[in-house]
UniProtKB/TrEMBL annotation:
Residues 1-16 form the signal peptide. This is RlpA-like double-psi beta-barrel-protein domain-containing protein-containing protein. Transmembrane segments: none annotated. Gene3D superfamilies: RlpA-like domain (2.40.40.10). Keywords: Signal. InterPro entries: Expansin_CellWall (IPR051477), RlpA-like_sf (IPR036908).
Length: 110
Protein backbone atom coordinates (compact mmCIF):
# COMPACT_ATOMS: atom_id res chain seq x y z
CA UNK A 1 0.00 0.00 0.00
CA UNK A 2 1.41 3.36 -0.93
CA UNK A 3 1.70 6.31 1.44
CA UNK A 4 -1.14 8.16 -0.30
CA UNK A 5 -3.47 5.20 0.25
CA UNK A 6 -2.44 4.92 3.88
CA UNK A 7 -3.00 8.64 4.38
CA UNK A 8 -6.40 8.35 2.68
CA UNK A 9 -7.42 5.45 4.93
CA UNK A 10 -6.21 7.16 8.08
CA UNK A 11 -8.13 10.32 7.27
CA UNK A 12 -11.29 8.33 6.46
CA UNK A 13 -12.59 4.93 7.50
CA UNK A 14 -11.62 2.18 5.07
CA UNK A 15 -13.57 -1.04 4.68
CA UNK A 16 -12.85 -4.36 3.00
CA UNK A 17 -14.26 -4.84 -0.49
CA UNK A 18 -14.34 -8.13 -2.33
CA UNK A 19 -15.98 -9.17 -5.59
CA UNK A 20 -18.33 -11.89 -6.71
CA UNK A 21 -20.03 -13.24 -9.81
CA UNK A 22 -23.82 -13.38 -9.52
CA UNK A 23 -24.05 -15.05 -12.97
CA UNK A 24 -27.66 -14.01 -13.59
CA UNK A 25 -28.96 -15.26 -10.26
CA UNK A 26 -31.36 -13.38 -8.03
CA UNK A 27 -29.92 -10.90 -5.53
CA UNK A 28 -31.42 -10.60 -2.06
CA UNK A 29 -33.40 -7.56 -3.28
CA UNK A 30 -35.23 -9.79 -5.79
CA UNK A 31 -33.60 -8.79 -9.09
CA UNK A 32 -31.56 -10.80 -11.59
CA UNK A 33 -27.93 -9.71 -11.34
CA UNK A 34 -25.21 -10.00 -13.96
CA UNK A 35 -21.46 -9.94 -13.41
CA UNK A 36 -21.23 -6.65 -15.32
CA UNK A 37 -23.98 -4.84 -13.38
CA UNK A 38 -23.03 -1.80 -11.28
CA UNK A 39 -24.36 -3.31 -8.07
CA UNK A 40 -23.11 -4.07 -4.59
CA UNK A 41 -23.95 -6.50 -1.80
CA UNK A 42 -23.97 -5.07 1.71
CA UNK A 43 -22.71 -6.97 4.71
CA UNK A 44 -25.12 -8.06 7.42
CA UNK A 45 -24.30 -5.06 9.66
CA UNK A 46 -25.61 -2.64 7.01
CA UNK A 47 -28.31 -4.80 5.44
CA UNK A 48 -31.16 -3.49 7.67
CA UNK A 49 -33.53 -6.25 6.51
CA UNK A 50 -33.23 -5.02 2.91
CA UNK A 51 -34.19 -1.42 3.69
CA UNK A 52 -31.36 -0.15 1.46
CA UNK A 53 -32.39 -2.10 -1.67
CA UNK A 54 -32.09 0.20 -4.67
CA UNK A 55 -30.18 2.83 -2.75
CA UNK A 56 -26.85 4.02 -4.19
CA UNK A 57 -23.45 4.00 -2.56
CA UNK A 58 -20.27 5.75 -3.66
CA UNK A 59 -17.14 3.58 -3.49
CA UNK A 60 -13.68 5.20 -3.64
CA UNK A 61 -10.32 3.49 -4.19
CA UNK A 62 -6.95 4.98 -5.21
CA UNK A 63 -8.42 8.08 -6.83
CA UNK A 64 -11.18 6.17 -8.62
CA UNK A 65 -14.82 6.18 -7.67
CA UNK A 66 -17.94 4.36 -8.76
CA UNK A 67 -21.60 4.65 -7.83
CA UNK A 68 -23.32 1.31 -7.25
CA UNK A 69 -26.87 0.23 -6.51
CA UNK A 70 -27.50 -1.93 -3.44
CA UNK A 71 -29.04 -5.15 -4.78
CA UNK A 72 -27.74 -8.00 -2.65
CA UNK A 73 -26.73 -9.24 0.80
CA UNK A 74 -23.21 -10.44 1.59
CA UNK A 75 -23.39 -12.68 4.67
CA UNK A 76 -19.65 -13.43 4.47
CA UNK A 77 -18.32 -9.92 3.92
CA UNK A 78 -15.15 -9.05 5.81
CA UNK A 79 -15.37 -6.67 8.75
CA UNK A 80 -18.29 -4.73 10.13
CA UNK A 81 -18.80 -2.62 7.00
CA UNK A 82 -17.41 -4.90 4.29
CA UNK A 83 -19.04 -4.92 0.86
CA UNK A 84 -19.05 -7.23 -2.15
CA UNK A 85 -18.96 -5.71 -5.64
CA UNK A 86 -19.84 -7.47 -8.85
CA UNK A 87 -16.80 -8.41 -10.88
CA UNK A 88 -17.50 -5.62 -13.39
CA UNK A 89 -17.72 -3.00 -10.65
CA UNK A 90 -14.50 -4.24 -9.04
CA UNK A 91 -12.70 -4.18 -12.42
CA UNK A 92 -13.81 -0.57 -12.94
CA UNK A 93 -12.35 0.59 -9.65
CA UNK A 94 -9.30 -1.72 -9.46
CA UNK A 95 -7.72 -2.78 -12.78
CA UNK A 96 -5.57 -5.26 -10.80
CA UNK A 97 -8.57 -6.81 -9.00
CA UNK A 98 -7.77 -10.41 -9.98
CA UNK A 99 -4.40 -10.26 -8.22
CA UNK A 100 -5.59 -8.05 -5.36
CA UNK A 101 -8.63 -10.18 -4.49
CA UNK A 102 -9.83 -7.73 -1.87
CA UNK A 103 -9.08 -4.06 -1.38
CA UNK A 104 -9.68 -1.41 1.28
CA UNK A 105 -12.18 1.20 0.12
CA UNK A 106 -14.11 4.14 1.44
CA UNK A 107 -17.83 3.95 0.83
CA UNK A 108 -20.93 5.89 1.81
CA UNK A 109 -24.59 6.13 0.90
CA UNK A 110 -25.41 8.87 -1.60
Amino acid sequence: MSFSILHFCYSQLCYAATYYQPDGGFGACGNHLQNTDAVVALGVNNWAAGAHCGRNILVQYQGRSITLSVQDLCPGCQGDNGIDLTEGAMAAIDPNYVNDGHINVVWSFV
